[in-house]
Design brief:
This protein is an alpha/beta fold. It folds into two domains: 56 residues, no CATH class; 180 residues, Vaccinia Virus protein VP39 (Rossmann fold, 3-Layer(aba) Sandwich), CATH 3.40.50. 38% of the residues lie in helices and 18% in strands. The protein has ten helices and eleven strands. The strands form three sheets. A seven-stranded mixed sheet has the order 5-4-3-6-9-11-10, with helices on both faces. Helix 7 links the parallel strand 3 and strand 4. Helix 1 packs across helix 2 and helix 2 packs across helix 4. The longest helix is centred in the middle third of the chain and has 13 residues.
Length: 272
């Protein structure tokens, strides 16, 4: 079958996800979009391609199919069982890089590392030593693999542990992209194939975020930075204030409040 014909059939099959038909064909043939359109009359073995289209149509995310995801211009290994990195999280990363450049943090903790992307990029960009915890054995496996790929495994201590069980280690910065979606929020079938414990934060959505804030305060953590849901700014600001944190919130490119950093009140060095 010719490339053009196969692509048209795949687009018809996927309907509202026509772009994915192109992405999948590019990955299958190991070519870019320009090559596809310059060679659209070329014959190829279409069966494996339509098998991939079928997997995607049934709800298997593109990133799981090809076992890779891109974030902050880096490629990471991902597979079923870990949260897929999303562009929305780059605002947290950008603010973390800025915060770390302005402060000489000695003891950094990431809560819920997933595929390891945030800690890995911070270590890669700034040569930081980081402790990172998660409750998923799959996440531990994938994060360690990604750290080796990016040659920062000597800088990050990935541990299998619930943050609430951590012994006090005098962390001066904690950061997290925790589960923050309400349990009853309707998600599409592709997202529902991702680990639910990495998506859903409770009946209100922000329960784990609240626990992280309280954990940080009880352990006298000076700086805290988190991603959160687009409609959670007001309640999180209230929780942060109750726990003596002065906070600053940041919007993503679509104008949604998406990340914050917070400084324990009374600290002399208050970053902006």
């Amino acid at each position: 079958m010719r490339i053009k014909q196969a692509l048209n059939l795949a687009k018809e099959s996927l309907k509202d996800h026509k772009n994915e038909a192109v992405f999948i064909l590019c990955e299958y043939l190991k070519k870019d979009k320009i090559w596809l359109y310059l060679n659209e009359e070329l014959e190829f073995d279409e069966k494996p391609y339509f098998d991939l289209i079928s997997r995607f149509k049934k709800g298997e995310p593109f990133e799981y199919i090809f076992k890779k995801a891109y974030f902050y211009n880096f490629e990471f290994y991902v597979e079923n069982g870990v949260l897929i990195p999303r562009y929305d999280s780059e605002i947290l990363l950008v603010k973390l890089i800025d915060l770390c450049k302005k402060n000489n943090f000695k003891n950094i903790l990431e809560i819920g590392f997933g595929s390891g992307i945030l800690s890995i990029i911070l270590a890669k960009e700034l040569s930081l030593k980081i402790t990172a915890c998660d409750i998923s054995t799959k996440a531990l496996e994938i994060a360690k693999k990604n750290a080796k790929i990016h040659k920062v495994d000597h800088l990050i201590d990935f541990i299998l542990c619930d943050f609430r069980d951590l012994k006090y280690n005098k962390f001066d910065l904690i950061f997290s992209n925790p589960p923050y979606i309400k349990n009853d929020y309707k998600l599409d079938k592709w997202v529902l194939n991702e680990p639910k414990e990495a998506l859903f934060g409770g009946e209100k959505g922000y329960e784990i975020l609240e626990e992280i804030i309280k954990f940080s305060f009880s352990n006298n953590v000076k700086y805290l930075a988190c991603e959160f849901g687009y409609d959670q700014k007001e309640i999180l600001q209230e929780i942060l204030n109750k726990n003596f944190y002065q906070s600053q919130f940041f919007k993503d490119e679509r104008g949604f409040n998406r990340a914050f950093w917070a400084i324990l009140k009374g600290e002399i060095n208050e970053s902006n």
